[in-house]
Design brief:
By secondary structure, the protein is of the alpha/beta class. The protein is 42% helix and 22% strand. It contains 15 helices and 15 strands. The strands form three sheets. The protein has a nine-stranded mixed sheet, with helices on both faces.
Length: 377
């Protein structure tokens, strides 16, 4: 089973924390949709022996597309790939794009999962982030969406400057009040070349603090688990049977194709990524060229990725798989490097699987990097 990711490189405005690739000019939107269709056609041989289980519209802001444009892209995937009978088709959407009519039309389209970028239910947070929607729109769109969609995920950002644990808990409880079966939540991070970075440098905004983010994370985990959510990946919580199939495929190392500017692909042996420039992407596709770079992954690269993704999830790192796929040297190295984290109760081994404990979950990326800083080639 494999997936198709389609990157829609347009947004109405720039969120202060965002460093994803997009343009706020929609002049080339129609041209871009046709180029995305063409890239889908150009790459149909890449997964010809695979069944497509997920189609994911990410961005940017995919909900900026018209229903007709979304349908054109879904049709292109069906025409060029072998799609399963009931694929998960996710559309990332912003509340300001989801009026009642649009939600009803989407519910009558092949899209069967919405991922809604709420980020916060507090007006002051949304203004600080420079989001295009307000708190009232966030609540209104969820009220309608939950009437027409069973499978909804919403995004929340924690670790906001000067946000108390009580205020953060209120955000989480507001999200829960809508009965959605999936929540993705990320710490506010300060990326280079973002407006947030500049605001912090000018001392207009206070820098986020790691200890605040960690406290918020613990509040989040406790509240969601209390309400029947499974913390199946570092940033993702789902009710049973509502885990994101698209994201789970990434973490379990399945193959996928990324369509559009800046989109990444993985075929089990190589990772590739398209150029992060709309104009150059369009020019290359028009000339029948794939504007991508390809990196062949060494055994060490693949091992490192497995450690990183495994420790972020409830499925952990299988010691048997490490030995079978990478060899005894890798297994012995992993066991040796893990000792101090097992001793400090950040990691545990149960039934031959290495996983992070509750105590270690928030630190899983840092722990993973300590386990894979090696080159045994």
């Amino acid at each position: 089973m494999s997936g198709i990711y389609i990157h829609i490189p347009f947004c109405k405005q720039t969120c202060h924390y965002c460093d994803f690739h997009f343009s706020t000019s929609l002049k080339k939107k129609e041209e871009m949709v046709m180029a995305l269709v063409k890239e889908i056609q150009m790459r149909k041989m890449e997964l010809e022996k695979e069944q497509i289980e997920t189609i994911y519209f990410g961005g940017g802001t995919p909900s900026i597309l018209s229903l007709k444009e979304i349908q054109v892209l879904i049709d292109a995937v069906y025409e060029n790939f072998n799609v399963t009978e009931s694929p998960e088709i996710t559309l990332e959407a912003n509340p300001d794009d989801l009026d009642d009519d649009t939600i009803i039309q989407l519910a009558n389209s092949p899209v069967n999962r919405l991922s809604i970028g709420i980020q916060s239910f507090f007006e002051e947070d949304l203004k600080l982030m420079n989001r295009a929607h307000n708190a009232m729109e966030a609540k209104r769109c969820l009220q309608t969406a939950t009437q027409y969609f069973d499978n909804i995920s919403l995004d929340l950002i924690y670790g906001m400057p000067n946000m108390s644990n009580e205020k953060w808990l209120q955000n989480v409880q507001t999200a829960l009040s809508f009965g959605v079966p999936h929540i993705s939540s990320y710490a506010l991070t300060v990326e280079p070349k973002t407006a947030l970075k500049k605001l912090i440098e000018k001392k207009v905004v206070e820098a986020p603090k790691d200890e605040v983010a960690q406290e918020h994370f613990l509040v989040l985990v406790e509240e969601l688990e209390k309400n029947g959510f499974v913390h199946y990946e570092l940033s993702n919580f789902g009710k049973p049977t509502y885990f994101s199939k698209n994201n789970t495929a990434y973490w379990l190392g399945k193959k996928y194709i990324g369509i559009g500017p800046s989109a990444h692909s993985y075929n089990g042996k190589e990772r590739s990524w398209n150029i992060a420039n709309n104009t150059l992407y369009l020019k290359a596709i028009q000339e029948n060229n794939l504007p991508n770079e390809v990196e062949e992954l060494t055994k060490t690269d693949r091992y490192n990725e497995y450690i990183m993704t495994g420790l972020r999830t409830i499925w952990g790192v299988s010691l048997k798989r490490v030995e079978l796929e990478y060899g005894e040297r890798y297994l012995l190295y992993l066991l040796e490097q893990s000792k101090k984290y097992i001793h400090s109760e950040h990691l545990q081994i149960e039934a031959d699987v290495l996983t992070t404990t509750k105590k270690g979950k928030f630190l899983s990326d840092g722990i993973a990097s300590d386990l894979f800083l090696l080159n045994l080639e």
